[in-house]
Amino acid sequence: MISAQVKRALRVLKSFVSSVKLTLKVSEIYLGLGIEPEKGAADSGNLEADLAQVFIALGDAAQDRHTAIAIIIDELEYLSEEELSSLIMATHKISQKSLPIILIGAGLPQLVGKAGRAKSYAERLFDYPELGPLKKDDAKLALQHPVQREGIIFTEDALGDIFRVTQGYPYFLQEWGYQSWNIATQSPIDITIAQKATDASIQRLDQSFFRVRFDRLTPREKEYLRALAELGPEPQRSGDVAEVLGIDVQNAAPVRNNLIKKGMIYSPKHGDTAFTVPLFEGFMKRIMPKNKVL
Predict the structure, then answer these.
(1) Does residue 135 sit in helix, strand or coil?
(2) Among 46, 133, 270, 294, which one is least packed by beta carbons within 10 Å?
């Protein structure tokens, strides 16, 4: 039986989004849930106030049912300052009331600074664990364990070569493992197969993972990233990037800022610039040859 707190949470949620309709199709039968909105709650049009009311209503409902709610959001760095500020304030409200809701978010490195600018207390409210590349032994296990269950193994040379190229980044390990599995015809999967997997993986990343990011850029932004790539994959001084472009730092700054907003680069420390996407410098060199750009 639905409790009064749960019903109110649904009404507040409907008030917030203007309509809530949960539809499930089973064969040719449609099941739906409709409920009247809670007038005067979460409908003011002020995002900070309304979202906080939604979170509190959901928290009250979860507490009444002796359960918890996890709100999981990816790519938080793309939220506007108003949206991020509202999310932080709503989380702060439920924290003050000790309601059983947890916010789990993921984003690029610039998210920490952006959250701090949105609300100064964000640094105290959240933990910011860094999720970087896997260590060599962990990367090897990530590749080896799944194939071992099928009676197949990678050779140590193959594992070492894949780790060297992928730098231990989990998404790339998945891609290289996928390509290696499809290319191999027998066990063990050796370095020859690993190198073929590298060629196939790079080609696929160039056509999709890297390409979709590249296509969002303006010509000037592409030139900036190509200049950054020319200097290498490590963080580079912003002044050095401007020098490669043949312009001063002040003129390069707006382009750099736009690229940070688009999630293409970040500043690991003041005055430094680095790619957010591993191996992107190689893609930039492949797609924009030096003699055509710099």
Answers:
(1) coil
(2) 270
- Determine how β-strand 69-73 pairs with β-strand 101-105: parallel
pLDDT of residue 1: 64
Per the CB < 8 A criterion, the answer to whether 167 and 132 are in contact is: no
**247: amino acid identity, one letter:** I
Q: What is the 3-state secondary structure (H, E, C) of 163-190?
A: HHHHCCCHHHHHHHHHHHHHHCCCCCEC
Looking at the whole model, is its pTM more than 0.85?
no
Task: Say if CB 153 and CB 124 are below 8 A apart.
Answer: no
Rg of the chain over Cα atoms, rounded to whole angstroms, equals: 24
The predicted pLDDT at position 20 comes to 39
Q: Report yes or no: 26 and 77 within 8 Å, Cβ to Cβ.
A: no
> For 164-206, what is each residue's pLDDT tens digit?
999 999 999 999 999 999 999 999 999 999 999 999 999 999 9
What is the average pLDDT value for the chain, to the nearest integer?
88
Range 237-253 burial, b when 16+ CB lie within 10 A, else e: ebebbbebbebeeeebe
